[in-house]
Amino acid sequence: MHRSSYLLGKGAWALFTILFVIVLNFFLFRILPGDPARAGLRDPRLTVEAQQAIRERFGLDKPVINCFQSLNPPQLGDCAVNPLDTQFFIYIGNLVRGEFGISYHTNRPVIEVIAERLWNTLILIGAGQILAIIFGMSLGVLAAWKARTPIDFGALGFSLLAWSLPTFWLGIILLFWGSTYLGLPIGGKLTPGMTYANAW
Question: If we measure between CA atoms, which residue out of 53, 59, 51 comes closest to residue 87?
Answer without folding.
Answer: 59
